[in-house]
Amino acid sequence: QEGFSEAALARLRQHLGNGNQCLVFINRRGYAPVLNCTTCGWSSECDACISQMTVHRTPPRLRCHHCGVSVALPRTCPHCKSATLDTMGLGTQKAESFLQRQFPNTPIIRVDRDSTRGKEGLSRALERVESGEPCILLGTQMLAKGHHFPNITLVVILEADGGLFSADFRGQEQMAQLVTQVAGRAGRAERAGEVLLQTKHAAHETLQALSNESYAQFSQRQLDQRLLASLPPFAHLALLRFDATDPAAAMGFAETAAQLSVQLSEDPRLVVDILGPMPAPMEKRAGRFRVQLQLKSERRGQLQDHLKNLIANLDQVKTPPRLRWSVDVDPQDMI
Ligand SMILES: [Zn+2]
Ligand SMILES: [Zn+2]
Question: How many domains in the chain?
Answer without folding.
Answer: 2
